[in-house]
Each structure stands twice: as structure tokens, then as C-alpha cells.
Amino acid sequence: MKIVVTGGLGFIGQALGRRLRGLGHDVVLVDSLTTQIHGALPQVVLPEGATFFRMDVRDLARNPELIEGCEAVYHLAAETGTAQSMYRVQDYVGVNELGTAALIEAIAAADRKPKRVILASSRSVYGEGAYVAPGRPDVLIQPSPRTPEQLAANAWEPVGADGSALQAVPTPENLPFFPGSIYAATKASQELLLRAAGPALGFKPVIFRFQNVYGEGQSLQNPYTGIISIFFNRARQGMEIPVYEDGLESRDFVHVDDIVDGLVAALDADLPDGVVMNLGAGAPTTVLDLVHQLLASGGFDVPVRVTGQYRVGDIRHCFADLTEARRLLGFEPRVSLADGLSRFCVWAGSQPVHVDKSEQAAAELRARKLMGA
């Protein structure tokens, strides 16, 4: 097949491109090579035999020939980063929403249109995700996003409407949108745009909601997203690791190889129109546990400090219910967190050392009253 991958030289895009080329597909990669992710002088390493166009995704509408005759589009291009989205609103809406609109216009202009468009969406659309109250495991509760006032009071855990304690459970796809950040809102918008356009233009939208993806090839210089790479970059330079809140916030960390497994399986699977599936490891890991596993995997001995700091828009817990991906794709995560971190540390240790910019990023958030304590 001819397959187009937007964001094709991003972390996930490169891994997907290599896999698709290995399967014999004709792969066209589209990427703007932003400085924040790729550095001032991007080092482009293309999957062997792939074609690359350096282009802002918003320019696709003027270049529909890139889409012409392709059988599928993987739409990965996006601005990512919850905290940064809260003040770079136009950038996030522009790339994520208008970029998706430009892709749809390019498809509309093509004579031979793709059969399916596979979107990399995000678990962030759920907000705080799914919880249950004690004694009511059959009733899912979706708490409101935590307010700046709650965070300032160190009230980290979401609570029920009556103030009662809640327990996080796997988040299913039928939980409504409840975005707590601009980034999350733009990912929800991408989903809606593709689901609205698909029937009219004759393509099948396939929507994946990724959890926290990590692994070899991840940007080591983006201070706004990817806590594993941020922590590694600090640890290799002997710097203290700051952990926000009380360190007990949790995430679902999934290796990029598992994500690519799901993406590739969706290429020719028999799927319902507009299907939505979670992709993740299906289990939560606290940030404090993650730090200690990462330091052990990398052989680092640096101090870890639980700071009590917080970022407006961050969630407390969310991990994936994988029932749909298992049922429709036979998806099963293969890379354990321990193995994935070991592989990541070997790869990252072979890469250049980058100046840590996480404190600069935190200062920008504090100046905009989006970070406290």
C-alpha cells in the first residue's frame, strides 16, 4: 500500500515508518521538524526507502497530491504537552485542529482517496478518567478536573460530588469527553472532525487514544512532555529529580513498540466505522515508582525530591481499559515497563547530552500562574 504518515519523523512516526517499510509498504512521511522536538539543526534519519516531505501539516490542503492514491493515512502530527497548551493556545489549536482540517481538505481534493484515516488521539480527552466509589464498583464516576484551588491546598486526589474518596479504575472508551487542558480539547476536536468527515468523503476513521508512550527515539530535549526523557536527561548530568505533587500520581506507561503493534494491526482489520480504542499498558505506575525504576535501570545515583509543586491541567490518575483493542485487534502489550526502561536507558545513553530546560519550562508556567507551590 501507499501510506502517508503525518508527524512521520516524530518519535512514534519514525517507529511506525520503519515497521511499515519492513512490511513492504510505500511510505510517505510528512513532518515540519519543529525545533522544540528536533533541535535547531534536525538530524533526519529516514526509514530505508521512505519518502519525506518537510511540511507543516496545515499546508496539506494546498498539496493534495501527497494524499492522492494512498490507501491509508496515519495522522500523528500534533503539538503535545498539557501544561504548555494552556498558554500557547493558538499554536495548539492551529496545528491540532486546523492541521486536521487541512488533511480533510486534502482528502476531499484527491480523486483517489484513502480508505481509512488512523488518528493518534490521547487519553487526555477523558480528563481525570474513570473512578468508582467504595461499595459501588458497578457505577463509573468521572470527576471534574482538579481546580487550582484544590491543587494549592494539596488536595491531590479527586473526590466524589459529596466529597467522598474515590478509587481509579481502568478507563473505557465510552466515558464522555471531559478535557482539563487546551491540548485535551484539541485532541477531542480532532476526533470529532474526522468522524464527521469520514462518511461524507468515504474514508473510515479509526481513533486510538494513547496513554503515556515512551521508548527509544523519544525526544531528549523537549522540556514540556515525556517525563521519562526529562528525568533521564537530568539524571545523567547528576541533577536532582523533582517529582510533582506527592509523587503518588499515576500514569499508564506504554512502550512505543506496543503502540506500533496496535497501529499496524488497524491497517487492514475489520473495524466498525468511527471506532475508538484505547492503547496502553493497562496498568498504572506512580511517578515515584517510575523514577526509582528508571534510576535503577540507568545505574544513576542522584537525589529524588518530592516537591509538592503542581501544574494546572495535569490529571491525577488514568489507565487504559484495553477490552476493545483486545477484542477488535487481538492487541496485547508485550514490553514490560522494566524491559522498556532498560532498553530506553541503553539507547538514551548513546545519545548526545542536552542542556536541561525543564526548570526554564517550569518558570514559564509559574510566570503565567499555571504552576504552584
Can you walk me through this structure?
This protein has helices at 11-22, 35-38, 82-85, 89-109, 148-152, 182-201, 227-235, 256-265, 287-298, 323-329, 337-349, 358-367, and strands at 2-6, 26-31, 51-54, 72-75, 116-122, 131-133, 136-141, 167-168, 204-210, 212-214, 241-243, 250-251, 253-255, 275-279, 285-286, 304-306, 310-311, 371-372. It has 373 residues and is an alpha/beta fold. The chain has one domain: NAD(P)-binding Rossmann-like Domain (Rossmann fold, 3-Layer(aba) Sandwich), CATH 3.40.50. The strands form six sheets. Strands 3-2-1-4-5-9-14 form a seven-stranded parallel β-sheet, sandwiched between helices. The protein is globular. The model has no long low-confidence stretch (mean pLDDT 95).
Level-2 CATH architecture = 3-Layer(aba) Sandwich
- Beta-strand percentage? 15-25%
How many structurally independent domains? 1
Order of helices and strands: EHEHEEHHEEEHEHEEHEEEHEEHEEHHHE
Q: Mean of residue pLDDT?
A: 95
Please count the beta strands (DSSP E, at least 2 residues each): 18
Q: Which segments are poorly predicted (pLDDT under 50) over 5 or more consecutive residues?
A: none
Helix content: 25-40%
Strand order of the largest sheet: 3-2-1-4-5-9-14
Most strands sheet? 7 strands, parallel
Number of helices: 12
Report the span from N to C terminus.
52 Å
Question: What would CATH call the homologous superfamily?
Answer: NAD(P)-binding Rossmann-like Domain
Shape: globular
Write down the CATH class: Alpha Beta
